[in-house]
Amino acid sequence: MRKCTLLDEKAKKTMLRKLPHPLNICGVKENEEVNGFTLSWVTQASFKPPLIVIASKADTKSHAMLKTSQVFAVSFLEAGQKDLAEKFFQPQRRVGNKFGDVEFYLGETGCPIISASLGYVECKVTGSLEQGDHSVFLGEVIAAGIHREGESLLLKDTPWEYGG
Length: 164
Ligand SMILES: Cc1cc2nc3c(=O)[nH]c(=O)nc-3n(C[C@H](O)[C@H](O)[C@H](O)COP(=O)(O)O)c2cc1C
What we know:
By secondary structure, the protein is an alpha+beta fold. It has one domain: Electron Transport, Fmn-binding Protein, Chain A (Pnp Oxidase, Chain A, Roll). Helices cover about 15% and strands about 40% of the residues. The chain has a seven-stranded antiparallel sheet. Strand 1 and strand 2 (about 35-40) form a beta hairpin. It is globular. The model has no long low-confidence stretch (mean pLDDT about 95). Flavin mononucleotide binds near residues 37, 40, 41, 60 and 89.
């Protein structure tokens, strides 16, 4: 029989914070409106077809937009672009249009792609799971592009934590 033990909160937090994460911007849309949020919870999930998984905070504007449009674009940030990560982790309902002074263009999905980023992948949602305070969206990569060479921005190189 399985032994029932209480979850060791400290161990859970310490170990989960050892997972390495990049910091990128997930661009979303709904009809003519665009938005974006700082995304750390992302991973590749299949070669063929090319699939990635993202987790999106359930009580955000971006989550509602993702659910409606079923598309998203991930713009990959460069190591020095902490300012962009900081801008996009503010909630739209508090700060308004985050793309006001950030140069972007619309990809094939209609989602915003940050011009100054290293590059992007665009995805169509092919599955989702709504459990807990974040929902998981499985996205098939239907477009991708490289803007320039550079090193990725990593969560561990910032003062912020997201996880645990
Ligand atoms: C370092 C860091 C990493 C984050 N990673 C994620 C993430 O992976 N998924 C997510 O949904 N929110 C993440 N967030 C929180 C969102 O960026 C935040 O909720 C944002 O305000 C949502 O924007 P919206 O309200 O305009 O939709 C992160 C925040 C920080 C500070």
